[in-house]
Fold this protein.
Amino acid sequence: MPDTAAPPGIDIRPLDTVDDVHTASEVLAEVWGGDRGGMPPNLLRALGHSGNYAVGLYDGDRMVGASVAFFAAPAARSMHSHITGVLPHHQSKGLGRVLKQHQREWALARDVGHITWTFDPLVARNAHFNLRTLGTRVTEYLVNHYGAMDDGINRGDETDRIMVSWALAAPPVPTPGDDRVVASVAVPHDIEALRTSDPADAAAWRARVRDQMVGHLADGLVIGGFDDQRGYLLVRPA
């Protein structure tokens, strides 16, 4: 991943104070539709104080995003990125990539070789960012991974997730060529809007994508990449 400079006025700083962690918790709650229990200030404080990655994204003096990751087993070589969010009016400006680049540099400075995280497979923009922009590798499809959640985004839905692994010092994983693609699994263009306009159709997408994914993986295929028109690209392991 090439260096990504922060836009003018944008800065990333550790969550060093009690005020910082309360502000970050409020920012993440707003991103996730009002869930103030998703990343409580006391947990943020504990993670940051014990040496994990806990930062705020600032536009001038105002925090507009935050990101939290913690060391995973084996602790010396891996981290799990639990949550990264940017306020709605600051989205689609490349700030998610700025945060990820900062997280990558922070991790490399501590001899971390890879970072893992999960994302909702129905969110096409996240699939594009994780698999095409960053070039991560899919490691698992997790059915209802977190169980029921009560935030404004996930309430009433099951929490299927895709786990990815980002090898920090390796070239991005390329999108597979057509000659390797055995099957594809389509996703809606904008599941977030669909959940508001037609919840029944959104729920049907969840079941359809899950059934297709689980079936293809059971047949020995793996998720090799993502295409904006076709969706997830399934290939045979190399």
User: Anything to note?
Assistant: The chain has six helices and ten strands. Helices lie at 18-31, 41-49, 95-108, 124-133, 191-197, 199-218. Residues 21 and 44 are 6 Å apart (CA to CA).
